[in-house]
Amino acid sequence: MRTTVGIIGAGPAGLLLARLLHTAGIDSVVLESRDRAYVERRQRAGILEQGTVDVLRAAGAAERLDREGLRHDGIELRFDRRRHRVDFPALTGGRSVTVYAQTEVCKDLIALQLKEGGPLLFEAEALAVEDAATDRPRVRFRHGGTDGAVDVLECDYVVGCDGFWGVARAAVPDGRTFERTYPYGWLGILADVAPSHDELVYARHDRGFALLSMRSPSVSRLYLQVPEGTDAETWSDEEIWAELERRFETDDDWRLERGPITQKSVTPMRSYVHEPMRHGRLFLAGDAAHIVPPTGAKGLNLAVGDVVTLARALTHQRQTGSAELLDAYSATCLRRVWQAERFSYDMTTLLHRAPGATPFDDRLQVARLDRIASSRAAETDLAEAYTGFPIG
Ligand SMILES: Cc1cc2nc3c(=O)[nH]c(=O)nc-3n(C[C@H](O)[C@H](O)[C@H](O)COP(=O)(O)OP(=O)(O)OC[C@H]3O[C@@H](n4cnc5c(N)ncnc54)[C@H](O)[C@@H]3O)c2cc1C
Questions:
Q1: DSSP letter string, 96-116
Q2: Whole-angstrom distance, CA of residue 78 vs CA of residue 200
Q3: Could you list the active site residues?
Q4: Which end of the chain lies in a sparser environment, N or C, as judged by fewer CB atoms within 10 Å?
Q5: Which of 35, 102, 127 has the most ligand 1 atoms within 8 A of CB, as the residue to mutate?
Q6: Predicted model pTM
Q7: Radius of gyration (Cα) for the chain, nearest Å?
Q8: Is the distance from the beta carbon of residue 26 to the nearest atom of ligand 1 less than 6 Å?
Q9: H-type helices in 288-358, by residue range?
Q10: Ligand 1, residues 72, 100, 162: which to mutate, most atoms within 8 A of Cβ?
Q11: What residues are paired with 76 via a beta bridge?
C-alpha cells in the first residue's frame, strides 16, 4: 500500500487529521488497532474549547455537534461549602465551551471518513515505523482482516496519532521526556440521571476533589479523587453516591440527584511531554506526544491543535513546496502544549488533596480559590485558559 500521509490511530487526532487532509485534497490512510465499536464506545473527554468547535465546523464535522452539543458559559468552583461561578463570556470577550462527548466526536468523524475520505482500516495494528529519517518512511502493520498477515504502508509522511501507549514515539530517537505522576486518580462514573447542575462543578473538599459533569441532558458524568491504583470495583454504588454527596455539600439547599450507574472506571493522573514532536518525516500528535491530567479538560483540545497545525503545514508544503511550517511544527505545538500543561497542573494542585497534606496546605488551597473568587484578574486568567489557547 502507498499513500501521502500514513496516520497511525483513529482517536480524535488521527480522525480529524484525515478529515482536514481530505478537505485539502491530500490523501491518507488511517490504521487503527481496535475495532470500530471499541473506538466509538471508549469513554474519555467531553469538553470542547471554542476553537475546537470552530475547527470541527470548518471541517464539516459539526452537524450533530451543533444540534446536540451543550454550550456552557461557565463553571462553578465549590469550596468551604460555598459556590462561585466563573462567567466565561464576561471574562473572555464572549468565549464559551461545549459539552459533547469524545465518543460522539469520533463517531461523527468515522462516519464522514468512511463516506467521503480515504481508507480507514480497523483492526490494523501498527508494529513499527521504519526509515522515518528518509523520504520514504514506512509503517509495518498487522491487519486482523487478513488473518494477521503483516503488511507495509509506504508513505511520504507518517503521523503517530496512536496515543500514549502507541508505537510511533519509539521511532523518535534522542527525544527528551518531561513527566510527573500524581499519587491519586479519578474514579469516574456514568449515571442515567439528569445532571444536578447545568454547568460543571469543580469541588475542593478536605476529603478530596469531586467533579460534576454531564454527557447529555439525561446522562451525568461524575468523578471522585481516589488513591492511585484504586480498583473501581471496590467502590459500591452506594459508597460512590454518599462520597459525592459529602464532597459537593453546600450551605444552601442544592442536592445531588442519584441514578443508576452504568459504567465506572479509574483514570490515572499524569503530566507528560515528549520533545521534539518530530523526527524526519515522522510527526507525533495528541496523546502520542503529551498527556495532561484531565482537571483542565485539555487532552482532546490539545490533540485538535496539533493536527490543525500539522494539516496547515502539510498543505503549505503541497502548495508552495516550502517545508518551513513543517520544520516549525514541533516548536509551534510545544508552546501551546506547555501552556496546557501549566494550566492542568495548576487546576490539579488547586483542587486535589495530596496524601500527607497539612492544614497549612488546606488553607493555602482555599486562599487560592478565594483569590479567584474575589479578583477579576485571577478569574480572567482561569477563564482564558479554560476556554482555550489560540492554535498555531
Ligand atoms: C480514561 C481516560 C479518560 C480521559 N478523560 C479526559 C477528560 O475527561 N478530559 C480531557 O480533556 N481529556 C481526557 N482524556 C484525554 C483525552 O481523551 C485524550 O487526550 C484524547 O483521546 C487524545 O486523542 P488522541 O487521538 O491523541 O489519542 P487516543 O484517543 O488515545 O487515540 C489513539 C488511537 O490509537 C490507537 N492505537 C494505539 N496504538 C496503535 C497501534 N500500534 N496501531 C494502530 N492504532 C493504535 C488506539 O486504539 C486509539 O484509537 C482521558 C483519557 C483517558 C485515557
A1: -EEE--HHHHHHHHHHHHHHH
A2: 10
A3: 72, 202, 294, 298, 386
A4: C
A5: 102
A6: 0.95
A7: 21
A8: no
A9: 299-320, 324-351
A10: 162
A11: 85, 201
- The answer to whether the CB of 31 is under 6 A from ligand 1 is yes
Ligand 1 close to Cβ of residue 267 (< 6 A): yes
Q: Ligand 1, residue 124: give the atom nearest the CA.
A: 43
**DSSP designation for 366:** H
pLDDT at 358: 95
Q: Give the pLDDT confidence score for residue 391 in this predicted structure.
A: 86
**323: amino acid identity, one letter:** A
For residue 344, what is its C-alpha cell?
Answer: 492542568
Whole-Å CA distances, 221 to 82, 151, 174, 211: 22, 41, 40, 8
Length of the chain: 392
In the prediction, which pLDDT does 2 show? 96
The one-character DSSP state at 251 is S
Among protein residues, the one with the nearest Cα to ligand 1's atom 51 is 44
Q: Is the CB of 298 under 6 A from ligand 1?
A: yes
Q: What are the DSSP calls for 313-327, one per residue?
A: HHHHHHHH---HHHH
Quote the strand ranges of 228-303, DSSP E.
Answer: 261-275, 278-279, 282-284, 290-291
Contact of 24 with 117, CB cutoff 8 Å: no
pLDDT at 146: 61
Residue 257: predicted pLDDT = 97
User: What pLDDT sits at residue 390?
Assistant: 86
| Whether the CB of 8 sits within 6 Å of ligand 1 | yes
Identity of residue 162: D
